[in-house]
Design brief:
alpha+beta, Rieske Iron-sulfur Protein, 14 helices, binds fe (ii) ion, binds FE2/S2 (inorganic) cluster
Length: 440
């Protein structure tokens, strides 16, 4: 098995023309190591949300690929992302999930770093270093670029990566559907509660492809559909809204991003019903009308589920949330889930959403459990010597994207695997390209 990896290109494992993708990309340790360099050290990665660090000294310990990073607001309110490792002997300088600090003091020998990353204090500086240590050279390691977009914060280690908005391209419309207020005002979201974190025995690409657009796995969720765990207590989401609308699978071949959206018919009424809670129902009714008024025809495009290459996934409507699938080995992924609400929504609305989010998502949520079962067992059944010889099938709707001009991108209104082929094609680009000059 290893020979064709060692001698070949990643592209040779990903045949999007024939719809055959090697299992090696999901199980190989060799490819996994290469991904850390080729994908995660070069792509723009989501690291957190501004509402998590509102005040000077606030920090949130995030991840970029396998590596721990500190997202922090310094005393001058500038936001930084630092590698969470001491410059002396590598100890993690911050071991908490989040908090507020004036300095980060390394627990090993006590070097301390200011919130702007500079090395501020060194114990026994005179005695041990004759006062000659050049502190300006030994500050925390900072990312090459950072970007803020409507509350979301992104970073990349690659100084040559294009500006974030270029990287995002036309996927921006779909990210806006996540980050903008429910009534169509720009931005205005905040993170609700803490970040849910859990591990899963599968490759990070399984959940990423699922969010990029697996419109085919309804059978997995049959039980929650029947139980009616949606906000309305009927379907999984808002069933009526789905019935009255067309589903669009949208992919962007040049970037690897993909989304599934709903194109609502003209004048579809609000169908976000939260049981018999009049405050919450009135709020969503109001938002629905306001959004139509502000956005016009654009209001008809509702985001459902999406993935920004490589592994930042989101649900733009319900449960409105961001997921990052941190790689932890070829067969291990750490999932992190941020839940979003409009900052100025009434408390009763936030409470109702929190309850819905918890019963839907995460390790205790009824829907996500279904998906995790599939990813874990598929991984275990794919890693054996014999199993690895047989590619997966990605042949749905090969070369048959069918709708033009409704929204930008390659669009299909059928059940299709085009979104997922787009993700893996871009993955192969990253794996084989030697620099951003080739990736542009
Ligand atoms: S490892 Fe941090 S001070 Fe030595
Ligand atoms: Fe699912």
């Amino acid at each position: 098995m290893a020979s064709h990896i060692a001698n070949g290109t990643a592209r040779s494992l990903v045949d999007v023309e024939k719809g055959r993708i090697s299992r090696e990309i999901f199980v190989s340790d060799e490819l996994y190591l290469k991904e850390q360099e080729q994908v995660f050290a070069r792509a723009w990665l989501f690291v957190g949300h501004e509402s998590q660090i509102p005040n000077p000294g606030d920090y949130f310990t995030s991840c970029m690929g396998e590596e721990s990073v500190i997202l922090v607001r310094d005393r001058e309110r500038r936001v930084h992302v630092f590698l969470n490792t001491c410059r002396h002997r590598g100890m993690k300088v911050c071991r908490y999930d989040e908090g507020n600090a004036t300095v980060f003091t390394c627990p090993y020998h006590g070097w301390s770093f200011a919130t702007d990353g500079t090395l501020a204090g060194v114990p026994y500086l005179k005695e041990a270093y004759d006062d000659e240590l050049d502190k300006s050279e030994w500050g925390l390691i900072e990312v090459a670029q950072i970007a803020h977009y409507k509350g979301s914060i992104w970073a990349t280690w690659d100084p040559k990566a294009p500006p974030f908005l270029d990287y995002l391209g036309e996927m921006r419309l779909h990210l806006d559907n996540l980050l903008d207020c429910r009534d169509g005002r720009e931005g205005g979201s905040e993170v609700l509660g803490g970040v849910q974190k859990w591990t899963m025995p599968c490759n990070w690409k399984f959940p990423s492809e699922n969010f990029a657009g697996d419109s085919y796995h309804n059978i997995s969720h049959r039980s929650v559909d029947l139980a009616g765990i949606g906000p309305s207590g009927r379907g999984r989401r808002d069933t009526d809204q789905h019935r009255a609308s067309e589903r669009l699978l949208i992919s962007f071949p040049g970037t690897g991003h993909a989304a599934t959206s709903i194109l609502q018919g003209e004048d579809v009424p609000n169908t976000s019903f939260f049981g018999d809670n009049p405050v919450v129902n009135e709020y969503f009714e109001h938002c629905h009308e306001e959004r139509k008024r502000r956005l016009g025809q654009k209001a008809r495009v509702l985001g459902v589920v999406a993935n920004i290459f490589p592994h930042m996934s989101f649900l733009a409507r319900q449960p409105r949330s961001i997921a990052v699938w941190h790689p932890r080995g070829a067969l291990q992924t750490e999932a992190w889930r941020w839940f979003l609400v409009d900052k100025d929504a009434p408390q009763e609305v936030k409470d109702a959403l929190r309850h819905f989010y918890m019963r839907y998502s995460g390790p205790g949520g009824m829907t996500e459990q279904d998906d995790m079962e599939n990813w874990g067992y598929a991984s275990a059944a794919s890693k054996g010597t014999i199993a690895r010889r047989y590619p997966y099938n990605y042949q749905q709707r090969l070369g048959r994207g069918d709708t033009e001009g409704v929204v930008p991108g390659t669009v299909d209104t059928h059940i299709s695997e085009e979104n997922v082929r787009c993700l893996y094609s871009r993955w192969a680009d990253f794996m084989d390209a030697s620099s951003w000059d080739e990736l542009r």
